[in-house]
Amino acid sequence: ADESSGYESESAGGERAAAAAGGSRGRQRRARTAFTSEQVCRLEKTFQRQKYLGASERRKLAAALQLSEIQIKTWFQNRRMKLKRQI
Length: 87
Known about the structure:
By secondary structure, the chain is an all-alpha fold. The protein is built from four helices and no strands.
């Protein structure tokens, strides 16, 4: 029953803070994805039709937009949170 919240090494917050402040310890953060206007337009149109994507739909959209499935998944998660804040 050794469950985690999904954050790697929750107790290593100081190390992550040091890395974020320019320290050499810890993993480098991924650069923020700069979506093109065409990608955003297609993502928004898809989001208007359906708020949640299944695995096969996510795979197809990722291939069509030349993005990773994780980028698609994260975009949809963030977009749902944006919608929730607006409501």
